[in-house]
Amino acid sequence: MSGPQRNSNNARESITSFDIHFTRYIDNDGKVVGALPDIAKDPDALIPLYRAMVLNRAFDTKAIALQRTGKLGTYASSLGQEAVFIAVGAVMKKQDVLVPYYRECGAQFLRGVTMTELLLYWAGDERGMDYAGPREDLPICVPIASQIPQAAGVALAMKYRREPRVAVTMFGDGATSKGDFYEAANAAGVWNLPLVFVVINNQWAISVPLREQTRCETLAQKAIAAGFPGEQVDGNDVIAVFDRFSAAMEKARTGGGPTLIEAITYRLSDHTTADDATRYRSDEELRTHWEREPIKRLRQYLITTGYWDQQRDEQLQQKCELEVEQATQAYLDTPPPEPESMFDYLYANLPGALQPQRDDLAKKVKQACQS
Amino acid sequence: MSGPQRNSNNARESITSFDIHFTRYIDNDGKVVGALPDIAKDPDALIPLYRAMVLNRAFDTKAIALQRTGKLGTYASSLGQEAVFIAVGAVMKKQDVLVPYYRECGAQFLRGVTMTELLLYWAGDERGMDYAGPREDLPICVPIASQIPQAAGVALAMKYRREPRVAVTMFGDGATSKGDFYEAANAAGVWNLPLVFVVINNQWAISVPLREQTRCETLAQKAIAAGFPGEQVDGNDVIAVFDRFSAAMEKARTGGGPTLIEAITYRLSDHTTADDATRYRSDEELRTHWEREPIKRLRQYLITTGYWDQQRDEQLQQKCELEVEQATQAYLDTPPPEPESMFDYLYANLPGALQPQRDDLAKKVKQACQS
Amino acid sequence: MPELNLIEAVNKALAFELAADENVVILGEDVGVNGGVFRATVGLQQRFGEQRVLDTPLAETLIAGVAVGMASQGLRPVAEIQFMGFIYSTVDQILNHASRLRNRTRGRLTCPMVLRAPYGGGIHAPEHHSESYEAMFAHIPGLRVVIPSSPARAYGLLLASIRDPDPVIFLEPKRIYRLIKQEVVDNGDGLPLDTCYTLRQGSDVTLVSWGAMLHETQQAAEQLVNDGISAEVIDVATLKPLDMQTILDSVSKTGRCVIVHEAARTAGFGAEIAAQLLEHGLLSLLAPVKRVTGYDTVMPLYRLEEFYLPGVDQIITAVREVVEFG
Amino acid sequence: MPELNLIEAVNKALAFELAADENVVILGEDVGVNGGVFRATVGLQQRFGEQRVLDTPLAETLIAGVAVGMASQGLRPVAEIQFMGFIYSTVDQILNHASRLRNRTRGRLTCPMVLRAPYGGGIHAPEHHSESYEAMFAHIPGLRVVIPSSPARAYGLLLASIRDPDPVIFLEPKRIYRLIKQEVVDNGDGLPLDTCYTLRQGSDVTLVSWGAMLHETQQAAEQLVNDGISAEVIDVATLKPLDMQTILDSVSKTGRCVIVHEAARTAGFGAEIAAQLLEHGLLSLLAPVKRVTGYDTVMPLYRLEEFYLPGVDQIITAVREVVEFG
Ligand SMILES: Cc1ncc(C[n+]2csc(CCOP(=O)(O)OP(=O)(O)O)c2C)c(N)n1
Ligand SMILES: Cc1ncc(C[n+]2csc(CCOP(=O)(O)OP(=O)(O)O)c2C)c(N)n1
Ligand SMILES: [Mg+2]
Ligand SMILES: [Mg+2]
């Protein structure tokens, strides 16, 4: 502790200071800013990111179409934020654990969650959270920020077992107003947890703009309150996210503790399919941000560097749409869940006290089938 | 927002930075450090602070003695932290509102809460929260940090009514780990509230030392996460607290918004009378901190400057003890509360549904009196 | 007279009281420009300004705590929690503070606040958006818990809740936000908070319910006429403090009672009503009191919610059982 | 065999399971060096190290959330909340997450955690330290709610709770932490969680209670012998899931029932038991079921808590009323 222990001759003096950095490699037009990291020069690494971003968007388009035609429930779109989700999903290792919120399907796909699973989830079916791939990843979390203390618990479990694994949790700018976030960040600091916090600063929390969410100039500086580094990246520059997030992951994996990464991006869609953003934000603002969106920017860079061309792009589009179609078909073909299943995963073994209720439901189901 | 809007040629660069300051005027031995503010040169202003600190300690001593002899319940001592409490109480104006935690009786006394009231409170009697003096001050708050969002509400009410009033809330280092604190601080920032946060950093939260509470170097820096200034003062230097807290109050009162002041002090007592601090902290640490305590230090300064002498000090001690005795007698003479009163302040009017319960209690009371 | 649905009635009541009492302030997430995710506050910020209708940061503990603080200073905050699924972070403020402030200070400070939240299932909402936890609040001394079941009652009960000198948890059954339209006189008249509302007279059985389930309950009562069963239907409306007398009087007439609620059965509020019938009305009971409720399961995601929610058939079956009993 | 009081039995159970299962981790405020404010964890950090017995920052949402996260990865966290008065910040994590994780993921992830908290009044504790809110948790599907009433049951039930594959809210009646000593065999045997415990056989009336109130209840049963009344005493022990059969069997024998709990009456857990008696046991009931409970008031500060807490006399009066009924 600084304070009474100190001996100084100035009544008032600065005792500590903090800096917040921002990183961007590729600007809105796909032009290079500053010295590029290796990934930017390696088409074999970069093109898969591009593919994943395009697939993410294709899924998104389809999910919204399904919702509009009554085939899906409320859905939260990733439009315009794909670079962050894909960079995070790509950098994480299989043994790491993702503790998501609800908007980062792109990251989940790279972890092995299937499009069919996520469609089931948004169609109101719990089976969509029984991921066949990443068995230890937490499911989508709707109550804002409540997943963040859990991520601290996941990271604490890794640390307890001395495993070289890292927990990653993602959340929005709105989530940084919830106490859960701060409590978890503070604990991650004290316990030096292998945990990376990724804030998707898409400028809006439903209709509440960032300036009404906080007076902070950056969300990265919230980490200062937890005693570990926070930094900003251009979240629409997949190379910047990849680079800085990789560094944070490496640090966490080797005992260096937590980092908070604020990815500056923009929610080009409505909040969810249940929202109408025209009620509260201007067309002009939206237009401006369409100019900064991540896929166009990366495509521009790839084409300029010669790593990519128009023809491959068209093929990729088709391939992605096909994949999404297949997943959609698999989702639509999935037989409906058994109503009685609502009792079957409540406890390891159904308590006797609940058996009559389960029987009652079975009767109800039978009657419903008959009528 | 910084971020995508920026145009720079460096991939990674600092975009914002923060400083934390520490202030002290009088050191552990009562010696002057740096240029003194006016208050330090004005015995008419300074001596009342000293008197109030001595009274605070006399009350404290008595309360602990009462608890030890079974005449009071669990009590939370102010020992060693009086400078902060007294400076805060002295600077606040009558029309301001204090939203306390549970350790700052010294501040409450200066606001007009009586010693008798606080004794009643710690003796398990709700009437001790019906302050005859500051009618709008919130009562003592035991659930850690839960008073802080309320303080934001109080400040918002002042702002809503365009009154030149300020809300002040106090809380411990432990409280800075609770989400309630961060949520309220963040809102105070966004709404630019007339609210001053005073953190009593007494190094311990029961048995948990500061380094297990947070990895932060200072608690003042937690304000950075809320977008307004935070600073440290030597909480055992009443002049430093008075000076910096006055500045924060003036700023808040004139529309400048919130400030967080971290007062570095030390809990020389057990956590409460129910605690035994020898279980978890060393005699040596305690000894060190006795050398830094605020009353001795201020007395030294006052005597050195010639504002005070030994004889007046003895008179003051006696006077304080007498005052405390009188308050104690008034407390002991207070007739016990009516059991039925537990129904009488539950709602503005007792709902009919509760009348039979009140009658039942009356019967129980009658029986108890007879037996 | 205009026909309003329930959410419009809520909006009208809020507007009326904002105009009538400058101490009334609305706060919550997205209540401003957006007018609330269900449009309860639509147009209010525009009409009354940003001071009166305030968007908060995304923080429910804060919302409740700020409301307590404002109320302690004599304002009348009406706070919205966007969905009941996000109300649990407010329990500490509600239980430890709002419900106790008057008692703790012997009446020096009071807490005239309203916490509004939409609750219940049936609209195919996402996860955690469809639960019914009214019993949790009904157990807390010092609170009022109010649940409207029609546009007119929403209007009158909300006005009374805002004017009430003590904290009120006002839970809005979102399944029926837009289900029915009704004539609502926007004259600022509140409705009493300490009473049940008898919606239908009957002689064979008393059906007790609240919120959205009253609609299935009333349908069941209607259909039971065909079986020659005359059902009295009671809307509890104010769960706390409970007007048990109206229910006891009805059951002493009918001798039979079925309680209907959407929340999980165990320790749901139906248990309290049954327990009081057993304590005070045993001799008039001609049959066991049945509860038709949600199951003691997690509220399923929407594909299965219709199987979770009690239906008209279940109510009818339960009524037949108690009528045929013994 | 050593004689232990209830808090020592808790300590022994924790020590046994820490030694037996390296997945068990204890966390909470002051649980380390200090051994917990009631000494439940005394000596454990010293013996098992800081990794196994972890002091947390002062943050209850965090404690619960961390426990959920650890449990999701196969550990068995046993989290302490220092007093029930500070448990409300955990409700969101418990209700929206802990109780649902298995169900949400169709069994892929589970939540074998225990949340321990001392609860109840009677020890002259400060404000907010004396409440009884077990009913709040007993209403949440997917949880177990367990309350011991003796050292031996504390030991066995806590071990079973830690080993249970699902989340358990373990509430410790702190009024009796040091009230009685009892021989407790420290052999690691758990006790069943799905059953009530019949503490005394009787034929005239069934007394149902849990936690600290069982002591007044047993005293009442003892004294009633003088009136020629033979009372059966049942310790519910596990409120959720509730073993109603044992209670129904007893009441079908005695025909009368009095339920005793310290929590506020309205929507307390006694209501659920009464409601089930009315649903399933009406025909065997010879008298109304009475509840002897705390009042629907805020738990008063300690000067008046003895007037709040139900006493032996009140239980006896209630029993006489039901025995003399009709
Ligand atoms: C605790 C809680 N409160 C309110 C909501 C309702 N809600 C859902 S999303 C949302 C906004 C979230 O904004 P942000 O955190 O920025 O994430 P984004 O959706 O913008 O990615 C709100 C208020 C919720 N899900 N959880
Ligand atoms: C929410 C909550 N959790 C736990 C407690 C129990 N408790 C009482 S005081 C205390 C430590 C508080 O430490 P700090 O905030 O530093 O204040 P101090 O007592 O040191 O002045 C704890 C854990 C409480 N009162 N409230
Ligand atoms: Mg956002
Ligand atoms: Mg402290």
Structural topology:
The complex is a heterotetramer, with two copies of chain A (371 residues) and two copies of chain C (326 residues).
Chain A lengths: L11 E12 L19 H26 L13 H10 L5 E3 L5 H7 L3 H8 L24 H14 L6 E6 L6 H12 L4 E7 L2 E2 L2 E2 H4 L16 E5 L3 H16 L5 E6 L18 H8 L3 H12 L4 H24 L7 H4 L10 H16 L1
Parallel strand pairs in A: 1-7, 2-3, 3-4, 4-8, 7-8
Antiparallel strand pairs in A: 5-6
Chain C lengths: L2 E2 L1 H15 L3 E5 L15 H5 L4 E3 L4 H13 L3 E5 L10 H8 L2 H4 L9 E6 L14 H5 L5 E3 L4 H13 L4 E6 L8 E2 L13 E4 L4 E5 L3 H12 L6 E5 L2 E3 L3 H11 L2 E8 L4 H12 L9 E5 L10 H4 L3 H13 L2
The structure holds thiamine diphosphate (2 copies) and magnesium ion (2 copies).
Quick overview:
Chain A is built from 13 helices and eight strands. Chain A has 371 residues and is α/β, with parallel strands linked by helices. Chain A has one domain (22-333): Rossmann fold (3-Layer(aba) Sandwich), CATH 3.40.50.
Describe this structure in words.
The complex is a heterotetramer, with 2 copies of chain A (371 residues) and 2 copies of chain C (326 residues). The relative contact order of chain A is 0.15. Chain A has helices at 43-68, 82-91, 105-111, 115-122, 147-160, 179-190, 210-213, 238-253, 283-290, 294-305, 310-333, 341-344, 355-370; strands spanning 12-23, 97-99, 167-172, 195-201, 204-205, 208-209, 230-234, 259-264. Chain A has 371 residues and is of the alpha/beta class. Chain A is 43% helix and 12% strand. Chain A has 13 helices and 8 strands. The N and C termini of chain A lie far apart (73 Å). Chain A has a single domain, classed as Rossmann fold. Chain C contains 12 helices and 14 strands. In chain C, α8 (213-224) packs across α12. With 326 residues, chain C is of the alpha/beta class. Chain C has 2 domains: 3-183, Rossmann fold (3-Layer(aba) Sandwich), CATH 3.40.50.970; 197-324, Rossmann fold, CATH 3.40.50.920. Helices cover 35% and strands 19% of the residues of chain C. Chain C starts with a strand and ends with a helix. Chains in contact: A-B, A-C, A-D, B-C, B-D, C-D. Chains A and B meet through β1, α6 and α7 of A and β1, α6 and α7 of B. One thiamine diphosphate (TPP) sits between chains A (103, 142-144, 171-175, 200, 202, 204-206, 267, 271) and C (29, 58, 60, 82, 86).
